[in-house]
DNA sequence: TGCCTCATGTCAGCATTCTGACATACGCTG
DNA sequence: CAGCGTATGTCAGAATGCTGACATGAGGCA
């Protein structure tokens, strides 16, 4: 408990709790993805491509919450590893549509199963209604945070 | 929507939403802390010290969700900047109790006000009951994630 | 048409954080 | 008492992600 009324009580702060939860989730994901030679950003990139093939590097960056420069170097590595492909030149504008290769898709299937396991474990103590309420609350928070900026 | 049943639908995944919210919060915090010359970890360190003076470097690291090596270099910088102090040798064991200086406390007051503003904005669209529900859900998720590891 | 703004891809350099390693100090247990 | 496991502080090197910058292409508008 704080004596003064100025600071933020970390024990009850939703922001702090959010950071704690995200940190725990990240750790758990890294634990299950490491055996596959992947990290969280790598997995997010592949999962995004499975759902929306043809996304550009910049769009993938926004979806994985990193800068486009970071995604650029990741895509170079994934291209070398044969998990994704990009055309030599842009069909229109400057954006190069990225797609999964069969190898990338196979790797993603293993990763998805592992990630799904973590998510199931994370939600194991919550009812469906509680999950829906949490989801709605998080969406409202994102909206408020974005509006202000 | 996914065709196959193996992957994770990012539009509805609570894990993805959690990452998105944490990312938005982090961005918003960095925006208000940058004018003060601070980052999120720096702020978290000072806030922890205000609430629990005498915490060791390793304990601060756990509280700020970074490694103790990272906290170590941060504390060196903060010590040079005159925001925290540490005794030359440990009173017992190896752990050195860290404390805020008056300068550090003054800086923290400004940062706390800024951070509080962001948190208020983040929660502006939620009722008190909804906040409590979200808090309980996040706590349950942390517990489940930690248990499995 | 020419210009202005914006988004993208890409390169280079820097900052931050992590992993690995080692020595030291405490507490427990045989 | 001796040994073991654990936690801490610290150093060094490596990985990761970011900021800054530049050129290029698309679209809107005078």
TrEMBL record, chains A, B:
Q: Which domain of life is it from?
A: Bacteria
**Which Pfam families would you find in this protein's record?**
MarR_2
Q: List the InterPro entries hit by this protein, alphabetically.
A: HTH_MarR-typ, MarR/SlyA-like, WH-like_DNA-bd_sf, WH_DNA-bd_sf
Q: By its UniProt entry, which Gene3D superfamilies does this protein fall under?
A: Winged helix-like DNA-binding domain superfamily/Winged helix DNA-binding domain
HTH marR-type domain sequence ranges: 11-147
PROSITE patterns to which the protein is assigned, alphabetical: HTH_MARR_2 (PS50995)
Please report the name of this protein according to its UniProt entry: Transcriptional regulator, MarR family protein
Protein source organism: Cellulomonas phragmiteti
